[in-house]
Amino acid sequence: MQPADQSCGAITRLLAAASHDLRQPLQAIGLWVALLREQAQDPKVRDILGKVQTTAQGAERVVDTLLDVTRLELGVVRVHLADFAIASLLEHVASTFAPLARDRQIELRVHHSSAIGRSDPDLLERILFNFVANAIRYSTRGAVLVGCRRHRGFLAIEVWDTGPGIQQERLEAIFQEFVQLGTAETDHHHGSVGLGLSIAQRTAALLGHPIQVMSCIGKGSCFRVEIPLGESRPDRLTRHAPTTTGADDCATTLFGSFVVVVEDERDQREAIGLLLRDWGCHVVAAASAAEALELLQDHLRLPNLLLADYRLTGDENGLAAIRAIRSALGENIPAAIISGECPSVVDGSDETADLALLRKPVSPERLHQCLVSLLFSASWHPV
């Protein structure tokens, strides 16, 4: 191995560790606050907890931004191009941003598509997420529309908002570092440091995808990224667990489900366990696959779902834990991985081909939707 390759590998491992260690406490805070909000009866207490949650989400965005900048600056971002179903990306947008849009009283409309695109799904997702997050956070009324259309032989993915708009002379400047869309007060409130659009543009340049923005003062803006059309429909259609239509209307769909949780950090394990029990699940929570299998000896039924943290104690990880439990029980039990790692560490492996992947910090709403989808989507074939 060449020295440059060794250095790149060391940097990637360092970023993976930093990503995990920074996101881990944010994950715990989000889960405990969500549990407290469920239990709190006093509206004032619930309001305070909501502010704590918003602050933690702002910290998460800063962490994500700084890690992204570091990876781009060091040149350790690797592009993995593939044909994939745009529907999977749009589904993930819908499920991820529905809570934020609801809190902001903004209508989020995601127009689904049967198109096949060619890009790196993870990197493209970060670009689109930045566009949608800005559209929702800086809108005070109306709706945000996400959709795509064929344009000049390419597929244009567009995010339209009904926000205040951007002055024409600022349209190019907004992609520069530390240039912010809103006022100093609103940007601070939303956890913005003025790097999001700069990262989106640099990521798009890495992928070879043009970015465009159109805006009209007082009416709103449109951010667009163009990607090549895919040549053929892939065998496996989605990288993320799909959403279940009306998941909010079926809060009891997990009631009675048997879920095994593998998480080596006690606070995380307890928080996830309490959350699942609040949803009516029977839970076995363990620090390792071996402990989980030992606890399962006292049960007469097989688990319905497996949920594991990617990074576990020692050499074990969540992929190996799920594989060990499935093998010991002789069943391909639906499973999800919760990860705070950089995407390249977890993705791109055949080992993840039949798993749902959730990024830390994962909201209770997203966790619920993922588990419901795993439980009830018999035709789901994730990548």
Tell me about this structure.
- The protein has eleven helices and twelve strands.
- It has a five-stranded mixed beta sheet with strand order 2-4-5-7-6. A five-stranded parallel beta sheet has the order 9-8-10-11-12, with helices on both faces.
- The relative contact order is 0.13.
- The chain is an alpha/beta fold.
- It has helices at 3-39, 43-74, 86-103, 121-137, 184-189, 196-207, 266-278, 289-296, 318-329, 343-346, 364-376; strands at residues 82-85, 107-110, 116-119, 143-151, 154-161, 211-216, 220-228, 258-262, 282-286, 305-309, 335-339, 356-359.
- Residues 183-193, 235-251 and 378-383 have low confidence and may be disordered.
What's the structural blueprint in terms of helices and strands?
Elements lengths: L2 H37 L3 H32 L7 E4 H18 L3 E4 L5 E4 L1 H17 L5 E9 L2 E8 L22 H6 L6 H12 L3 E6 L3 E9 L29 E5 L3 H13 L3 E5 L2 H8 L8 E5 L8 H12 L5 E5 L3 H4 L9 E4 L4 H13 L7
Parallel strand pairs: 2-4, 8-9, 8-10, 10-11, 11-12
Antiparallel strand pairs: 1-3, 4-5, 5-7, 6-7
Spatial extent as radius of gyration: 21 Å
The run of helices and strands is: HHEHEEHEEHHEEEHEHEHEHEH
Residue-averaged pLDDT: 79
User: How would you sum up the major sheet?
Assistant: 5 strands, mixed
CATH class of the largest domain: Alpha Beta
